[in-house]
Amino acid sequence: MGxxxxxxxxxxxxxxxxxxxxGGTFAYFNDTESSTGNTFAAGTIDLKPELTGSALWNLxxxxxxxxxxxxTQTLSNDGTLPGDLTMDLTVADxxxxxxxxxxxxxxxxxxxxxINGTESLSTxxxxxxxxxxxxxxxxxxxxxxxxxxAAKGSAGDSVTLRVTGEFPDSxxxxxxYQKDSVAVDFTFELKQQ
Length: 193
Ligand SMILES: [Ca+2]
Ligand SMILES: [Ca+2]
Prior knowledge:
The protein is mainly β and 193 residues long. The protein has one helix at 3-22, and strands spanning 47-48, 67-69, 73-77, 83-94, 109-115, 118-119, 134-135, 143-149, 158-166, 181-192.
């Protein structure tokens, strides 16, 4: 028996067995479709530039009347997902402890907070002592919403920020602030929406 005939016999036997078990087979219409290659991949949230350890200002040896300005800083989303940007602030005084009591964060004022070039300080509720000015002490623990950043490459994937301030000259002696210093830490977080 040639190999073709052997194969033919095998097929016939199988068909018979099916008929015995199932009690009969019937033809039917059917249709199958497939979808392959379905993947789920996580996108990224990546705020740039990396600011770890870099200061926006470092002003030793100041006196009443001095001003400071961070210059315009750009923060960008370098990731593939949009996010909401916040800025956390902490303020820490070091009291020189000479000439009476008082620390710099009581008197140094933030005079401008520019977001994309628009002065936005008054849009935040920061003047908790209703003095008419935002002193550094009022920023300690503040969390400011700076808006959304689109995914990298889309319109609105970056924001510019600039902070200005002043150590006001009160017109009278402010010797209680001699030798004092104050540190302001900014922490920016871009969080997925
Ligand atoms: Ca105030
Ligand atoms: Ca002091």
